[in-house]
Amino acid sequence: MLWLCxxxxxxxxxxxxxxxxxxxxxxxxxxxxxxxxALFAILFFTVQAVSSFFIAGQEERPFWWYILGIxxxxxxxxxxxxxxEIKDFDIDLHNHPQRVLQSGRIGLKHLIxxxxxxxxxxxVWSLLSGWPVILVWLFALxxxxxxxxxxxxxxxxxxxxxxxxxxxxxxMPLIILWVYTAFHPALEILFPFYILAALSLLSGFSFEVxxxxxxxxxxxxxxxxxxxxxxxxxxVILVLLLLLGGVLVQLYLLSLIDARLxxxxxxxxxxxxxxxLYVNNLFRPTEKSLRLAEKIVSLFMLAAYMSIIIEVxxx
Length: 315
Hints:
The protein is built from 14 helices and no strands. The protein has two domains: 20-187, Tetracycline Repressor, domain 2 (Orthogonal Bundle), CATH 1.10.357.140; 190-315. By secondary structure, it is an all-alpha fold. Helix 10 packs antiparallel against helix 12 (232-256) and helix 12 (232-256) packs antiparallel against helix 13 (261-283). It is 76% helix and 0% strand.
């Protein structure tokens, strides 16, 4: 696996070391919590649900193949997290010295070791799923490596937070395509993929913006935020527009799968509460209320994906 470490992480060596379980669990709770892993698993089954609805005659897969696929998707997102930890280590050491990684309870080499193990799972699952899947995985991996090195224009991108985020969020449709190809390995991109890609991109982008909006009194020197980069009101309007775009795509997808009324109502309720919170924060911004709004935005992703799964499989 030495070659894999050199390619993925540009490090002189990769050593799988014995890690302290408590520190590993503490890191995951802090930076890659189980709720995130559950959402990635739900994303996997959402892609399966949409592909099975629109594409007839899919191959039957054993139960362990699905488990391996879920682990592969979680691993891909975890590697993105590790790439971010490598890029931002020095900055986070200054701004967040109390974190598990920055405090030394766990090291980058431990995270790298875990990500290499996960990459092996991705390769195995992709190979088992067919050569088209491994080709799409390589493309997605290649794009994530460009993200790791900030497209070799880091000084420029770091001046424009929105542009930086846009280039990095484009990995989401590639991950969707990777999983989609596993259920439809004909290297034929059909219409459902574009809908799913748009939903994942808009919902993911809205959450990315939401988590980096702070009230004026909560802004910290040296810590980037959209409210600081774009202006507070502009960033709030942006997250609402992204969320509205995600809602419209979701409603269209629900109509395509002949969803029942409850799914539309659920999405409408989630958006209504998000709108209510953000409009209130435009006039009376508080950090507590913004963090609640962030949770509502993440709830939209969960509600969108789960409503698709339920309507496809349990009508």
